[in-house]
Amino acid sequence: MRHRAESFAKVAVPVKALLNRFALLFLILAAFAIMLLGKADTLVVERARSGVIDVVAPVMDALSRPIATVSDGVDRANRFFSVYEENAQIREQNARLLEWQSAALALAAENSAFRKMLNFVPERGASFAAARVIGDSGGVFVRSVLINAGTIEGIEKGDAVVNGDGLIGRVAEAGRRAGRVLLVSDLNSRIPVVAEKSRVRAILAGDNSPVLKLAFLPPNARLEVGDRIVTSGHGGVFPAGLPVGQITSVADGLIRVQPFADFYRLEYVRIITEFPGEVAGQIVPSSARPSRQR
Amino acid sequence: MITAAVQRIDRSARQLAPFLSSVILVMFSALPVYLPGYGQVAVDVGLMTVFYWAIYRPDLFPVIAAFVLGLWQDILVGSPIGLHALILLLANWAIVSQRTFFQGKSFAVIWWCFSLVALASALVSWILVCALNTTLVSPMAVLSQAALTVGIFPFMAWFLARAQHAIVRPPDE
């Protein structure tokens, strides 16, 4: 009996070792295959990703709440020490904003008078969905966040995501209850933009650093530091006029843009699910897409 | 009869603990922390757990576990899918194949080896990401991630060692 067990082991051990080695090789090949499938933007991979995220989203949602509370608490304690200066600052800003308000009211009255003259048909407003950020990209090669809203809330892949400061990114994957937002600073993010003053069109590209760069500028474009950059709405994927950032440096054809949104402190975001002029359900050619798909 | 069944469940639960705890730790690492700049250099928790278990209990952390953990990390973190799967797989294989070297070595030696593994994984992932995006990405982020991961490793190792003694227990028990 013992002899038999030994002879069995003599055969079984090398076979097991062979299987193990084969498993390693197989898994390495599988990893490469999955990488290529993911790169080719395959529907299967995308479904699998959003499926898993859907399942985990409620757990991550619950776990991220205490962290947000602690972070808010620290923030509040910090602000307590600068209350006096902040108050002075806010008073000054309030005075300035009141001037702007009266200017805006005058312009609105003028505008409505002109519209009446022209029999202008007003556009439908945009509709939004709100979401909480439940996951950060812990990766060094991607700038993305997980949000706790999905197709149930009317979110679709490609929708623009904003917060109070400006554009944040676009929906890269939409599950039922959760989605992933590709930030404008991601390497794969390309957004058609326009300089607000000079109306120069360009593509705003991320390169994983906190500042963005402008690409595909017309040869004689004149841009200055401080110019505001807004979405142009070309391609019909994003609404036009969403504030994105401000030019911080113009040097040797390399134009850097500082985004208005602070990506480190994203807690709540809004997703623009519908907007006037949206090219709905149309297959956008890849060159007109706001960013390259991964 | 019932006690035997309970014991069996208890034992398999303990044997699954290294993998399941890694899954949970990776999920924790994907939560938003609201620290400026942290998202860019977030610690690679998957690599730490795979390294630890490959050295101390490779019988409970087979290559397939490393592969699945890598896929899990890719999905949660949003990195190119398959990237961490491949890296954790290679790390697991590299360490398990050198297992006799690690036996009885001091923690300093193990830490030093971990820094080599972290550097190698940083380089491999940098090359893969450059190839996948067909552009040259700055390697700074990945190197600072490796440095931070190496710095955090002793704490993680201490935590995992406590978990190992409390839950997993030695193999002969």
How would you describe the overall organization of this protein?
- The complex is a heterodimer of chains A (294) and B (173).
- With 294 residues, chain A is of the alpha+beta class.
- Chain A contains three helices and twelve strands.
- Chain A has helices at residues 2-39, 43-80, 83-118; strands at 127-136, 144-147, 160-162, 167-174, 179-183, 190-195, 201-205, 212-215, 228-231, 243-251, 254-259, 268-274.
- In chain A, the strands form two sheets. In chain A, strands 1-2-5-4-3-12 form a six-stranded antiparallel beta barrel. In chain A, strands 6-7-8-11-10-9 form a six-stranded antiparallel beta barrel.
- Chain A is elongated and about 95 Å long.
- Chain B has 173 residues and is mainly α.
- Chain B contains eight helices and no strands.
- The two termini of chain B are 20 Å apart.
- Chains A and B meet through helix 1, helix 2, strand 1 and strand 2 of A and helix 1, helix 2, helix 4, helix 5 and helix 7 of B.
Number of helical runs of chain A? 3
What sequence of helices (H) and strands (E) makes up the elements of chain B? HHHHHHHH
- Strand segment count of chain A: 12
Estimated structural class of chain B:
mainly alpha
Q: Proportion of β residues of chain B?
A: under 5%
The number of helical elements of chain B comes to 8
Number of strands of chain B: 0
Rg on CA atoms of chain B, Å: 17 Å
Kindly report the average pLDDT value of chain A: 82
Segments of chain A where pLDDT lies below 50 for 5+ residues?
281-294
- Averaging pLDDT over every residue of chain B, what do you get? 86
Oligomeric description of these chains:
heterodimer
A few lines on this structure:
The complex is a heterodimer of chains A (294) and B (173). By secondary structure, chain A is α+β, with helices and mostly antiparallel strands. Chain A has helices at 2-39, 43-80, 83-118; strands spanning 127-136, 144-147, 160-162, 167-174, 179-183, 190-195, 201-205, 212-215, 228-231, 243-251, 254-259, 268-274.
